[in-house]
Amino acid sequence: MLAWYVARDAGFYAAQGLKVDIVNMNGGSRGAAELQAGRLDVMHVGLSSVIRVNRAGGDIRTIGSLSNVIRFTFFSAPGVKGAADLKGGVIGVSTFGSESDSTVTLAMQRLGLTRNDVVVKEYGGGMQRLAAVKGGEIKATPINEPIASLARAQGVDVLVDLVPAQIPWVFSSIVVRRGDIGARRDVLIRFLKGTIEGNYLALTDEKRAKNVLAKELKITDPKILDVTYDDFKAQSPANIEISQPGAENILAQFPGGSQKAEDYIDTSLLDALPRRRLFRCDGGKVQALAASSGCGDDAWPALSPSP
User: Fold this and answer.
1) What is the mean pLDDT of the chain?
2) What mean pLDDT do residues 155-161 have?
3) Which residues fall within 8 angstroms of residue 37, CB to CB, at 6 or more apart?
4) Element (H, E) at 120
C-alpha cells in the first residue's frame, strides 16, 4: 500500500480534490466483500478475491495493479521438512479467496501434492500465522515481507519459496465496484492519477518512501525497513498496469467459471491516461510529478513506460 501512503503524504490526492482515508481490512477477500457491500470505495486486493466475489454474484473490477508477481514464501512448523510431513496437515491463510489462499495450489504443486492433500484454514494476518506455525498449531503458511524476513531471522524453516520464480500474478490490485466505473468515472481517474504519482515518487525517492513506511507501518528496525522497501521496488509496476500473463495465471487456478478477463478487469480508466510518453515543461526539464511541478494537467504524468 506504499503508493497510497506516499500519495496521501505528498498531497497528490489533495491536489486531485480528494480526501482519502486508508483502513486495514486484515484480509483481501474480507475487504473485497466490504467493497461489494458499499462500505468501501476502493480496495487494495489481489485478483483472486475479485474472481471469487464475482462468481458468488458480486460485480467488482480490478482497474490497476500495484504488484504483478507472487511475493509469498511458505514457512513450515518444526519437524515439517517436506511433502510427507505436510500431508493431512493444516495450512493457515489470511482469509479464503485471498492471494495467500490461491497460491496454496501452486505451493502444493511444487511439493507434488494437491489442495486435497491438506486442510486450508483461515488464520488472519501474517503475525498471527507466524505465531501459529512456530507453535506447531498449523503445519505451514504463506508469508510475505516484511514478516517473511522476521520469520527467517527467528529460524523458521522455509518449505517452498515462490518469490525467486517471479511468477506473473495480479498479486495486489486496485478494485472498485463496476457501477462506479461509469457513475464516478472522473473521481476514479483522479484517484488513479494520484496513485500513479505516489507510486512513482515511492519508486524514485527512497528516503522519503522509507520515512512514510516507518511512520505508517510503525517500523523501527532499519533492516526490516530496508527489506520492506526493496520488496516494494521488486514488485511494483511504475504505471500500475495490470499484468495480462498474471491475470491468465490466476484464472487458470479457477476452472469452472468465466475465463473472460473482462468479467474481472476493466482497463478503461488506465487507458484514458497518457502514460506512455514523457512530458516536458519548466525549460525542458523532465518532471516526474506534474501535480507538484505546476506543469498543468495536460502535462500529467511525466512517467516513462515500465519495462
Assistant:
1) 87
2) 97
3) none
4) strand 119-122
